[in-house]
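User: Can you recover a sequence for this backbone? Please restate the input before giving your answer.

Assistant: Of course. Working from this structure:
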């Protein structure tokens, strides 16, 4: 842990940035099994927000591991650090007045809770992308479930590593029952009901 560091206040506040952009800033935290539709849904919502001239950015699990978190593996400790870092990056975006959409399996409740604690009140919306594992396995666009079942991938969430479903998410989306556009509309409607957009 670094010592002898001081937090410097910004000359432009989060509230001023929100006022200029005309909307609340927050994190839509999409969590669910691999192939549940997190990234697809996050990007569909991002497109809808963009079309309404609402500033947003998608942080995707694979993309983040290509850069910021390329030093991390998939042990429980590394997964926890992966999510902590994403929480801190998300906070910076929120402070900038930007809506952040994150698409991470984030299998552990304590890790998601830690991110919620990093952010302020009404800045963390947990979206449980609830899709049965058998449907995820049918989709399996990267072939990861097959590799996990064949023993080529260890500690794979849902197979030999647990996924702890949210107990009280702000929103639950069933991607196996609705089209992606219908799912995106459910998210947009929730944001409108909360007067976040």
């Amino acid at each position: 842990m670094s010592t002898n560091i001081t937090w410097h206040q910004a000359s432009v506040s989060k509230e001023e940035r929100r006022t200029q952009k005309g909307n609340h800033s927050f994190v839509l935290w999409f969590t669910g099994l691999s192939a549940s539709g997190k990234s697809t849904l996050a990007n569909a919502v991002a497109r809808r927000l963009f079309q309404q001239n609402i500033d947003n950015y998608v942080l995707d699990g694979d993309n983040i591991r290509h850069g910021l978190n390329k030093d991390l593996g998939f042990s429980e400790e590394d997964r926890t650090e992966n999510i902590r870092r994403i929480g801190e990056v998300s906070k910076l975006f929120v402070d900038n007045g930007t809506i952040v959409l994150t698409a991470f399996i984030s299998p552990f409740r304590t890790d998601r809770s830690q991110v919620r604690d990093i952010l302020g009140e009404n800045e963390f919306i947990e979206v449980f992308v609830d899709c049965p594992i058998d449907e995820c396995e049918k989709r399996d666009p990267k072939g990861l479930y097959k590799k996990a079942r064949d023993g080529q991938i260890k500690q794979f969430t849902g197979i030999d590593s647990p996924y702890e479903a949210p107990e009280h998410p702000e929103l639950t989306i069933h991607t196996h029952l609705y089209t992606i556009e219908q799912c995106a509309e459910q998210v947009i409607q929730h944001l409108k009901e909360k007067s976040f957009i």
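That completes the design. The chain has one domain: 14-193.
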